[in-house]
Amino acid sequence: MKKIIFFLAMVLILCACGGEEPVEVDHAKMLYDYTDLNEVDEDEIIMPHTTVNLHGEIQRKGEEINMAVSRLSDEDGIAHEGVVFENSNLLVVESIDKEKYLVLVEDRDEFNQWSEGDFITVTGTFEGINNSTYTPLIKANRIE
């Protein structure tokens, strides 16, 4: 009986901790020098794998694009890492404060329902900084 109660308590604790609230995108907090960990204060940046909200206008669309990002690693012994997203659908979104963000959209039907000039709200995962444009990359979980 004690094991069952302990198990149920653990499930409740995990459920309570699992619902991460999205944070609003902030260009300055996403474009940090990930190669110099002495300069990184985790309270003043948005870490990779954080759920974020982005409100803005679609500036451009691209299909089947390979996109590389760099980010802090959450693996022990690895300071930072590079990741490539292959054959991705991409939206370039300009936020309300006129900053550019790259948004990866996995669902082709969802990607096709949006056009340049549409105002959208994206809830997604901050993946890192694009290697060539130094623009934050967000992998969309939901677009409205």
Structural write-up:
- This is DUF3221 domain-containing protein.
- Keywords: Signal.
- There is one protein chain.
- With 144 residues, this protein is α/β, with parallel strands linked by helices.
- It has one domain: Nucleic acid-binding proteins (OB fold (Dihydrolipoamide Acetyltransferase, E2P)), CATH 2.40.50.140.
- The chain is built from three helices and six strands.
- A five-stranded mixed beta barrel has the order 2-3-4-6-5.
- The radius of gyration is 17 Å and the shape is globular.
- The relative contact order is 0.21.
- About 10% of the residues have low confidence.
Question: Could you give a quick summary of the protein structure above?
Answer:
Residues 1-18 form the signal peptide. It is built from 3 helices and 6 strands, in the order αβαβββαββ.
Give the key terms:
alpha/beta, DUF3221 domain-containing protein, 6 strands, signal, five-stranded mixed beta barrel, OB fold (Dihydrolipoamide Acetyltransferase, E2P), 144 residues
Can you lay out the helices and strands and say which pair or pack?
Elements: H1 2-18, E1 23-24, H2 27-30, E2 51-72, E3 80-95, E4 100-105, H3 108-112, E5 119-130, E6 136-143
Parallel strand pairs: 1-2, 4-6
Antiparallel strand pairs: 2-3, 2-5, 3-4, 5-6
Average pLDDT reading: 82
The CATH architecture name reads Beta Barrel
Tell me the strand percentage band.
over 45%
Q: What share of the residues lie within helices? A: 10-25%
Number of discrete domains: 1
CATH homologous group name: Nucleic acid-binding proteins
Specify the number of helices.
3
**Strand elements, count:** 6
Largest sheet: 5 strands, mixed, barrel
Named CATH topology: OB fold (Dihydrolipoamide Acetyltransferase, E2P)
What is the gyration radius calculated from CA atoms? Answer: 17 Å
Report the structural category: alpha/beta
Spatial order of the strands forming the largest sheet: 2-3-4-6-5
CATH class: Mainly Beta
